[in-house]
Design a protein that fits this description.
The complex is a heterodimer of chains A (158) and B (704).
Chain A: E1 2-3, H1 4-24, E2 39-40, H2 58-119, H3 122-129
Antiparallel strand pairs in A: 1-2
Chain B: H1 5-37, H2 39-50, E1 51-56, E2 63-64, E3 70-82, H3 90-101, H4 105-115, E4 129-132, H5 137-143, E5 152-161, H6 169-172, E6 174-175, E7 181-183, H7 184-188, H8 190-193, E8 198-204, E9 210-217, E10 224-227, H9 231-247, E11 252-258, E12 265-271, H10 283-289, H11 293-296, H12 306-315, E13 324-326, E14 331-334, E15 337-341, E16 348-350, H13 351-357, H14 360-370, H15 372-381, H16 418-422, H17 432-443, E17 447-448, E18 454-460, E19 466-469, E20 477-478, H18 482-498, E21 512-522, E22 525-538, E23 545-554, H19 558-576, H20 605-629, H21 657-667, E24 671-674, E25 678-683, E26 696-701
Parallel strand pairs in B: 2-10, 24-26
Antiparallel strand pairs in B: 1-8, 2-3, 3-4, 3-5, 6-7, 8-9, 10-18, 11-12, 11-23, 13-16, 14-15, 17-20, 18-19, 21-22, 22-23, 25-26
Helix pairs in contact in B: 3-4, 9-19, 12-14, 12-15, 12-18, 13-18
The chains are: A mainly alpha (158), B alpha+beta (704).
Chain lengths: 158, 704
């Protein structure tokens, strides 16, 4: 059995005190003084459970299981309620992103189509060709001979 | 009596309690007033402060050519705007913003200052100024850090791109700064093409920075148009027209290429033209933008109208191509009015020759014989004086006065002599598209088609697919007999082969047409300037294209100025449409022309008048001599044209009866059979032209 101050001394100050005292020799004792009527008596009482009889309490058991089940169900319900919303939120976000991407790509496609059309426009092709290309004269055009089984041919039009 | 202290204290407490109660009632009342009675108003006011509605511009529909290549396409861009009222120091603002956009800071500062409350009256107090439209990625990147500190906003915008530049400008049209069409199809079908704008709600903070936004209504894209225009034919038509206008010293001109079977316009070109890409056009361009000559401006068609008059003569059964008409040797005096003249003296002519040689007197006589009612009826049948219904803005119905006057004051009606002059294209006005429609009647075998430039309309659905929008096309109406159309077609072929339109010959293809030259009468005098035109088709057997060329205010006539343009345009169109050639290419070079053959007018009208005067004097002298020599001399032999319109007679000789019948049935020739056995003699001879109504007489005899 020991007092609170002694316990404190032992726990915290004891070792430091002893080492400091050893170093300083006749140092002043600053340990806490015992207060009156403050003793705490700690003792161990052995309990014999050999005669204890375990009683089955169905009510408690049901209450516990009910509580656990309720909590579980509530959790599941909560999840079930929040999950679609959350999923919808994520899906909406994803859809919005995809829509944005679609719009951006549609616009890019338009820009590219416009550029392509400008590049293959007759006036642009004329610029590329310069004066190197011209319509061939009639005499310069040679028609390929008709293939077997052909019913009409430009080569034989005369 | 002294009141006890306790009583006084309790009275005070009661008084204070009452005051507190009244105060509480007032507070609750006020709260009720604000929260219940005025709830909606305050909600509105709050929303107005932090919730904004932004319009999402709809994508404008595309315009594609018949092969699916875009002619006009909208691209989403962004534009920089500012509220000038929130700019504290325009100089400072401009010094920061202008360099980022490559603008002149002084000009920008001046503009902002004008928009603020110290500018012109027109711009006073404006709260919206577009600093620059269609920002590039670099410009947006440079503006990014400035958006936090300056009152600028980047708003969604659209840019209309015309990748083919000027090609088809008058058909496609253009947009104004607000994005509304101001010419061509962009104007005519603006409501369909602009789509429906969407709405976006934006919640903003105290600094007007948006932190939440959502689309409350999606925008709906406008209708896409697929045109019947072929951009290659269109481009070449514009080039050849510009060349033709310059060569003929004309002021303006137009070319139309049309499919005569369906009425699909393959090209429609005007000169002068404009660039639809210019948002701020020059005054000349602005004028050209609103002047679609081919559709909006009628002019006297001149001799091309003879095609309708001769068609009327033949279709009504009064004349055949070989019917003879005396053309009065160049001058046809009319009682009480000016005489009708031909440019060259012509005596007896057949009807075909009248069209080939373009005799005014000849067609006037046809019209006199048929009467004004018949001519008016045929003009209406050919669509003259009526809108064609083409999908282009401000179409003119031309100028065709009423046949009968409502009263004595009515001047918008035919005079007793109008039909004589309308027969050769005077006193009447037609647009180029009306002429194209009229010549299509001849080219397609007698059907009046409805010219159109829109082939297909489509609208994107929610899943991104294109859904066709139904278009109602009117069915063609039969207006003349097919055999008449065939006959006129052959006569018009002769116009190109040996008549006034020889410069219209298309290498490798047969072609037919008619020249026209209407001299311009302005300010009380003839101007020695013409509206020269050529209308025609190719190939003759199965016409695939009809081409109308009109050159305005040129000193040259249709056969000289417009016919070569026809030749070039028709050749391009037939090549692009991959029409097989139907003529030997040795025929490409037309015979050299003489002024007489091409009806070339003297450059000066006075000189022409003098020449005519001399001719008349000479003629008088000759007549007097003849009178003296032989009073009872036979009249001049009727010089029928050797050209008889009709099919060639095949050689039946040596063939049995069955074979002759089969051959004649195949060719659609009427045959009269005499005897049995094998064909020995036939009339007309093989290779000759079978005239209208004539039969081939074949005599058979048994083999010897």
């Amino acid at each position: 059995m020991t007092s609170l101050a002694a316990l404190f001394d032992w726990l915290a100050a004891g070792k430091a005190m002893s080492s400091a005292a050893a170093r300083r020799g006749n140092a002043t004792d600053f340990r806490l003084r015992r207060l009156p009527k403050e003793e705490i008596h700690l003792y161990v009482k052995s309990i014999d459970n050999t005669t204890v009889v375990r009683l089955v309490d169905k009510k408690d058991w049901l209450a516990s299981v009910g509580m656990a089940g309720g909590v579980l169900t509530a959790s599941l319900l909560l999840i079930a309620m929040l999950l679609p919303g959350g999923y919808t939120l994520l899906a909406s976000h994803r859809m919005e992103q995809l829509r944005h991407d679609r719009d951006r790509m549609t616009n890019e496609l338009r820009v590219l189509r416009s550029r392509q059309a400008a590049l293959v426009s007759p006036s642009q092709l004329e610029q590329y060709a310069g004066h190197s290309f011209s319509t061939p004269t009639a005499a310069a055009v040679i028609f390929a001979p008709p293939s077997k089984g052909a019913v009409a041919s430009l080569g034989n039009r005369h | 009596m002294e009141i006890p202290v306790g009583d006084r204290a309790s009275k005070r407490v009661i008084l204070v309690g009452r005051i507190v109660f009244i105060w509480a009632v007032l507070i609750v009342g006020r709260l009720g007033y604000l929260q219940v009675l005025k709830h909606d108003d305050f909600v509105k006011a709050a929303r107005a402060q932090h919730q904004h509605k932004i319009q999402i511009p709809a994508d404008r529909g595309e315009i594609l050519d018949r092969t699916g290549i875009p002619l006009a396409i909208s691209v989403r861009t962004e534009s920089l705007v500012v509220n000038p009222q929130r700019v504290a120091d325009p100089q400072f603002f401009s010094a920061i913003v202008a360099p980022a956009l490559g603008l002149n800071s002084t000009e920008l500062a001046t503009k902002i200052a004008e928009y603020q409350d110290r500018g012109t009256k027109k711009a006073r107090g404006r709260g919206f100024l577009i600093i620059k439209r269609h920002l590039t990625d670099d410009e947006k990147y440079r503006l990014q850090p400035l958006r936090r500190t300056l009152p600028i906003e980047i708003l969604p915008d659209h840019k209309r791109e015309y990748p083919n530049g000027l090609t088809g400008a008058h058909v496609i049209g253009s947009l104004d700064a607000e994005g509304n069409g101001n010419a061509g199809l962009e104007q005519k079908l603006n409501s369909e093409m602009q789509g429906k704008p969407g709405k976006m709600m934006v919640l903003t903070g105290s600094r007007q920075d948006s932190y939440v936004s959502w689309v409350s209504e999606e925008s709906v894209q406008g209708t896409n148009l697929t045109l019947s225009i072929d951009r290659v034919i269109q481009h070449d038509a514009e080039e050849f027209l510009a060349e033709g206008v310059k060569e003929a010293s004309a002021s303006s001109g137009t070319v139309i290429v049309m499919d005569p079977q369906s009425g699909e316009v393959l090209a429609l070109a005007n000169y002068p033209t404009f660039d639809p890409r210019h948002e701020q056009p020059t005054p000349d361009e602005a004028e050209a933008r609103h002047k679609n000559i081919a559709v909006q401006i009628p002019c006297e068609p001149g001799s091309v109208m003879k095609m309708i008059t001769v068609t009327m003569g033949i279709d009504s059964g009064r004349f055949t191509p070989t019917s003879g008409i005396y053309c009065e040797n160049g001058s046809f005096p009319r009682p009480g009015r000016r005489a009708i003249h031909d440019l060259h003296r012509m005596g007896n002519m057949d009807v075909a020759g009248i069209l080939i040689k373009s005799s005014n007197i000849g067609v006037a006589k046809i019209s006199i014989a048929a009467g004004p009612k018949a001519l008016y009826d045929y003009l209406k049948r050919f669509g003259i004086g009526e809108k064609t219904g083409i999908e282009l803005p401000a179409e003119s119905r031309g100028l065709l006065r009423h046949l009968e006057c409502k009263d004595s004051k009515d001047r918008w009606c035919w005079s007793p002599a109008s039909h004589e002059y309308i027969a050769f294209g005077h006193e009447v006005g037609a647009t180029a598209i009306q002429l194209a429609r009229a010549v299509s009647v001849i080219a397609n075998g007698g059907l009046l088609v409805n010219p159109h430039v829109v082939l297909k309309k489509s609208r994107p659905t929610d899943d991104g697919r294109l859904q066709n929008v139904p278009i109602e096309f009117k069915n063609p109406i039969r207006v003349i007999r097919p055999e008449t159309a065939f006959t006129i077609r052959r006569i018009m072929e002769s116009v190109v082969e040996e008549g006034t339109g020889r410069r219209a010959a298309v290498p490798g293809y047969s072609s037919g047409g008619k020249t026209g030259s209407a001299e311009i009468f302005e300010n009380g005098a003839w101007q020695n300037r013409h509206n020269s035109s050529f209308i025609g088709f190719a190939p003759v057997t199965n016409p695939r294209v009809v081409v109308v060329v009109t050159l305005n205010r040129t000193p040259k006539q249709g056969g000289i100025a417009a016919a070569p343009v026809f030749s070039k345009v028709a050749e391009t169109a037939l090549r692009v449409l991959q029409v097989p050639k139907d003529r030997p290419e040795s025929d490409v070079q037309p015979k050299p022309l003489t002024p007489a053959e091409t009806d070339e007018l003297p450059e000066n009208r006075v000189a022409k008048a003098e020449a005519l005067k001399k001719e008349k004097e000479k003629e008088k002298e000759e007549l007097e001599k003849k009178k003296l020599q032989a009073a009872d001399q036979e009249p001049e032999a009727k010089p029928f044209s050797p050209l008889l319109v009709g099919p060639k007679v095949p050689d039946f000789r040596g063939m049995p009866v069955v074979a002759v019948l089969r051959e004649s049935a195949t060719r659609g020739l009427p045959v009269e059979i005499v005897g049995r056995g094998k064909a020995r003699v036939q009339k007309p001879a093989p290779g000759s032209i079978l005239s209208n109504g004539e039969r081939i007489q074949v005599e058979f005899s048994a083999a010897q």
